[in-house]
Structure formats: structure tokens, C-alpha cells
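Bumping with the actual sequence this time:
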Amino acid sequence: MLPVFFGAASATAYGVSWQVVAMIGLVPLVGGAILRYLTFRYRYEASELVIKTGLLFRRERHVPYSRIQNLDAVQGVFHRVLGVVEVRIQTGGGTEPEAKMTVLPIEALDQLRQKVFEGKSEERASSDLEVVAPGPQGSSEEGERLLHLPPRELLLYGLIQNRGMLVIAAAFGLLWETGVLNRVTEAVVGGSADGEGILRGIVAEFAAGIAPGRLVLVVGILVGVLLFARFLSMAWALVRLHDYTITRIGEDLRTTFGSLTQVAATIPLRRVQTVTIHEGPLHRLANRVAVRVETAGGAGSEDGDPNRQWLAPIIPVDRLSALLSQVVPELDMDAVAWEPVAPGALRRVTKRFAMVAGLVSIPFFPLWQWWGFLVATPLLGAAVFYAGRHVRHLGWSVGHDTVLFRRGWLWRQTSVARFAKIQAVTVRETPFDRRRDMARVRVDTAGGGAASQGVEIPYLPVQTARTLGKQLAAEAAQTAFRW
């Protein structure tokens, strides 16, 4: 829908009727949705759920009941009005749901739940199955509430995340296409912008010597945009994560949240592969952190289910240990003894950052000639300073049944992987590593992927890396992996 909307808005700038563009874009969308609805079929077999989709390109999927690990339910505003729900069927493999039923009646959800329960043994039904329905229609089963985020915490989360810049960027592109920015440029810098846009108009005005009054106006607009972006982000967090609650029921962590769109998702504790603690500059200022988890077959990529990626989008530091004890009981963050990387890491990282600073400085020399050193010198100094801080905050540790890795200075991340979830251990040496007698150790889990925030320890002495790799592989071999 969004591409159609922006296309219709942009068409008016080129003399094309927006109604024509809207019709051309909406007809395929509506027709495709109706076709998917009419060709969607599912049936219950004795031991599996069979789902058929497609007209020209038909697809039939067989999902054994014993492999279904989650039935997540999402209800938007129109879902609740029409009495339907979107159900996502998750198994232990893949980065996408095995099936998605977008307009399933509430009664059909209850029947699906009952059939899945009947198709599984009593033992697996109590340990593997997670069936969740949203809002008031959900299960009345109660558990131990581990975390509840009041509106104050949600507003703080929105302030830190600054999701409003995405909305600002989209609005900027729309105003650019419709020509509104040209009129804004005329009001700010004076005269006609001749299609250049507001940014180039402001730059040209600065080059010619901007008047003090207009300078104040430009600064005020920029500050206003930044403040408005933060406001939008806070409003988004308040609506999107309304009444965010984590409850432990048996071996499941269930998260429920949402105002307009109500979401109920389950994070089975046995499927958790890695836990990552995020801490940015604003997090530290507010004494908060965020906790992210990766589950088997769930969120190994950025396209994974967003309802499963964040365990706690924001949580006070003093409550972190209590939450982590529910996910990784054997972990005691206060007792972790961090090991440093190789001493030569500082030299390598400094060279890399200095090279980047030098490349950024090159374009200034043709413009300002020798005055370009006024830019290059602070950049090189900042690169050396940042490299020292970066290496100082690199660390790793092997504890009781866990391996940990921390990285980052301004934006810090601490990743934890359990021995029982390790799939493979890799010791890798690049030509630069071999020159400095270094290596890196990577720990792969079932939830890892291209965008995984897992455990990969760089700049280790080569002998330390090989010993660590053998130790982790041996520990993983002695534990039984369970999905």
C-alpha cells in the first residue's frame, strides 16, 4: 500500500492524475489478496496439518503436529472488528513461519489449537507446544510476571530508539516529490530554489553569506525536526508496545503488547540460542539496557519474526540479573571474569580506523588545500582515541556452561551462548592474523544467521584461540542438543 500511496502523491508533480496511479496499483494488490484468500485451504490429518496455496503455482505443505512449536496470534484493529486473527505457525527450522493464516476466525483458532494438542503426545504438549491467542480471547492460564513496562518506560524507550527519523525521512521524500520543499526553500533562503531542493539551497545561501535572521530560522527548523522525530518515536513506542508484559508459564516466556495491533508471542526457553545485551550512550545515561534473544530457526536474520527478536526492549539495570536468571539460570553476570584480547590488537585496530579517517579527509584537500589538515588532524586523533576505547572494551569469558563475548564502546553488546546450544566452533586465521600470530573463534548456534549478533571473538593469540576452540567443541559434544 505504501508504494502505491507515494506513487500517487508523486504523480501529481508530473501532471498525472493520482486516481489513475492509485487504480493501477490497487487493482493488482486487491486482486492478489482475493486470489490468495480463495485458493487457501488447510485440513487436519491424523498426525499433520496440510496447507494448500496458489492457483497457477500451487504449493502444498505438510507440517507434523509434533514439529509445531509456536502458534503466534496477531490482531489488528480490523481483525478485532471482523472477529478474525492472523496466526503464524512456527517450527524449529527456517527464518520464516511455516504458514501464515491472515484471516482465521477465532473459533477456527480454537479448533486449530485443539487439533494440534490432540496430535501431540502429552509429554511434548507440555514441553514443546506454545499456543497463544491475543488479548481478551487468549488463554486464561496465569504465570509468573517477570517484567511489565509502564508508559514512562515506553516513552523512554521511544526517546532512546528515535524511530521517528524513519517517518521524517519518508515525509521528506514525499514533500520533495510533490514540490512542497521548493516553496519551503524559498521561505527559508529567499528567492527561487529552481528545483534544487532545500538542502542545496541552504548550502548555497551559506556559501554566499547567510543573514543572521535566516541563520536562526534554519537552526530552529533543524532543532524542531529533531525534537519532532523524538516525539514521533515516543508516540510510536507508546502505541506499539502498550502494556508490554513478559510472563513465565512453565518453560515458556510469553510476551504480550500492543494497542492498535495486539500481539501475543511465545519464546520457548529451550529454543533460546543466544542472549545479547545492548547498551547505547542514552541507555547508560538512563541506567537502562535492552535484551535481545535468538531462537532456533526463528530470528537468524533481520527478516525474522520481530516479535521474537527483543525479549526486553528496555529494562532497568538493577532488574537485568533477575530476568537473565530465567533465561540462562547458570549465568551470573556479576561474577564474570573477562579475558582481554591479544596486546597487538590495539595496533591493528588503530591502523584500520586511521586509514578510514584518512580516506574521509582526502576530499577536503582539493577544496581547502593545506587547510585540509584542519579536518584530517582531528579525525586522526579521534580515530586513535576510539581505537583505544574499542580494544579496551573487547573481552571474552568461559563460565559454567556458557561462553560470553563483549564488544563496543559507545554502543556496547554482550553476547551469551550456552554450551548445549553450540552447533559448531570455528577457528579462523586471515593473512593479517597469521602475520601477528592471531586468530578468531566463532561459535555458531541454531539461531545464527547473516544478521546474527552471536559470539565471534577476534584478535586472540593463536594458541589461545586453538585451545579455546577445542574446549568449546569438547563442551558442546558432551551436552545433548534439544530443540
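The C-alpha cells above came from a reply further down the thread. The first helix runs from residue 2 to 11.
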